[in-house]
Amino acid sequence: MPERENPVGGTDDVEAVARAVLTASRLLVAVSARSLAVVEERVTLPQFRMLVVLSMHGATKLVTLAEQLQVAPSTAMRMLDRLIAAGLADRRTNPDSRRETVLQLTEEGRRAVADVMARRRAEISVIVERLSPEQRVSLIEALNAFSEAGAEAPVPDLADTEPFPLGWVDAAPAGDG
């Protein structure tokens, strides 16, 4: 693909952008992995992703949860069984349809998600504080544009959410953890 002059004076090089995004994603994966230290003895990264989805959506049917995680229902069930054994999730009868079971976080599961997200947010804040105000503005614009191009819903203002931003889904790959 040919390089084009961009208004800022550099070149529009898709490969350079891809390399920069991959480098940044390595950093974010490392931050994510370190933030899991508070729960790593009990859950894997894919299992934590399930906790995040459950915390976002509340009581959820297994099929819906599997769809959101883009895994087979059998995979979601194995992951869920491990989370239930760890005391982080549970099953209950759907109050709207007694023939259905819904899955949800326990209070301990909600605390685990909140703790991990607080650690992640704190470490990212330390990194962002190293940037100049101008770099921060540019980063916000670039990341928002990147997220929009990938059809990712924006995270609400952190100050307006408890225990962490709803709509946020960990980008870790799903799998049978």
UniProtKB/TrEMBL annotation:
One of its GO terms (molecular function) is DNA-binding transcription factor activity. Transmembrane segments: none annotated. It comes from the Bacteria. SMART domains: HTH_MARR (SM00347). PROSITE patterns: HTH_MARR_2. Pfam families: MarR. Residues 14-148 form the HTH marR-type domain. Coiled coil: none annotated. One of its GO terms (biological process) is response to stress. PANTHER family: TRANSCRIPTIONAL REGULATOR, MARR FAMILY, TRANSCRIPTIONAL REGULATORY PROTEIN-RELATED. This is Transcriptional regulator. It comes from Streptomyces fructofermentans.
